[in-house]
Design a protein that fits this description.
alpha+beta, Mannose-Binding Protein A, Chain A, four-stranded antiparallel β-sheet, about 20% strand, globular
Length: about 220
Amino acid sequence: MFRINWLGRAVCAALVCVLLVSSASADMFQWTVAEGGNGHYYEFVYDSISWYAAKTNAEGMSHMGVSGHLVTITSSEENEWVWNHQIIGGDDRFRAAGNWIGAYQEGASATAKDAVQGFAPDERWAWVTGEEWEFTNWYSGYPNDGGFYNPAQDVDFAQFVCPVPGTSQWRDVRQSGGICQVARGYMVEYDIPEPATLTLLGIGGLLALRRRKRG
């Protein structure tokens, strides 16, 4: 009888903690498993900074004890969900601001073009987390290493297309500088499991601790 009560208290405590922390953050969104998502949390930040600065800021943020990172998009469903949640206070005008995502070309350089480095504009793209590079959603004609806009500099970082309203596709740009090439915001992703998973993990840890104490 004691064990059932103890487990019940543990479940309730874990759920209460999850609810309290989840409701504490403004402009925080969860792509729930119930709606076909991965259970992760996402936070949109509106700030006109370079890709490297956005990456550093994202990795310095945390939610529910989990560090963030620039969003990594691995399916068309996630891409549309992320694009639709570039919102602050219910205002969705930020979608066309050219916001950063966590995609870059390995071996990125601020001075040398891809052709000089020995690879094409569409080669060696990667996610900041090291996830497999499989899904892409490039706008027509991209990636193109800057085309005629930046003939002297490499273009190694991805953002949602700007200033084309109504599209959730990407383009490659410089990490800073250029008309409409400095993003106005970025999406942070927190790889946090669903509350039910957190509860089970918490109970598992408590059970392990109990067994250790008994031993």
